[in-house]
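Friendly challenge for the regulars: who can give me the structure tokens for this chain first? No prize, just bragging rights.
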Amino acid sequence: MSIYTDESVELLRSMVRIPSVTYGETEVQKHISSWLDAAGVPHSCAGRNIVAFSEVFDPSRRTLALDAHIDTVPACGGYSFDPFDPGDDPEIVRGLGSNDDGGSVAAMIAVFRELRAVELPFNIVLTLSCEEERSGPDGADWLYAPGGYLESCGCVPSWAIVGEPTGLKAATSERGLLVIDGEARGVSGHAARGDGVNALYIALEDIEAIRALKFPRISPVMGPVRLNVTQIEAGTAHNVIPDTCRFVVDIRPTEQYSNEEILAELQSLCRSTLTARNLRNRSSASRPGSPLVRTALALGLECYSSPTTSDWMRIPCDALKLGPGESSRSHRPDEYITRSEIEAAAELYKDLILNLYGNIVE
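First reply, four minutes later:
Bragging rights claimed.
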């Protein structure tokens, strides 16, 4: 395993040098594919994703998926070094995407190479997906959807480990994301005469109703649904009654409500028209009695609820989120991950895989 991990760390260094912002993952995918070819790991390039099945894959067996993403957000300002320079410190890989999600990619490739020819009671499939940072349709959504790429290959995973920087804690749930655009409509008029219908006042009444709303179903692991109005815009001049007012609501759902339910509840309170930007970013939670969670607990892992979203929302089977690095380093300047974090993750993934079967209850 140590050799595989060392090689994966060097792969990660070369990945950092290749820009791979969401929808622009082609070059980094080609690079990883060439690297896997040289390492003797059979795989497929599925769109801008990479998929590799264990050497002893048997369609009659259940399957564990290892998923990490190869895209990044754009480099933000404030870096003290070139975000595409991984540096030459042997113990640290720095740069854009090193922590989110290159560390998980490296660790999952290492453990997949270690176990891909081992006869296990279940199959392993490695998916390195695109478009995670923008919730795009051609990444994990396409790979894991019913009738999607994996199913077309005779593979419907029963479990998944989603690689994300969690500090090697096991996230057994994560909040979803629902962004709603509100638009209040009124009638323009001259402010001096006080005529017209003020759309801003309509929006403010709706915002107050939204603020006062308490969703009654509380998640035992995530708590209540969280929502905040984060933007508002109205008016063209100081002396014109605004006939439109737009506002934005940021909502972090739990598994207690679907996004459709939340939208319908808010719309019932508002005169403004509410439109969801995307209803697919659902919350996720490991299923009751999850063998993945039992295995994580048996290995002494700390379990928690994650406030951030990931590919998990696209994966319909039992899952948990686990990986090297820290979420606090993501999407900010001077991103980095350490060699020791990647090594620890590869070993932990291996322990989880080898101990999983003993925690499966038929």
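The chain has a mean pLDDT of 95. The chain is about 30% helix and 20% strand. Your move, everyone else.
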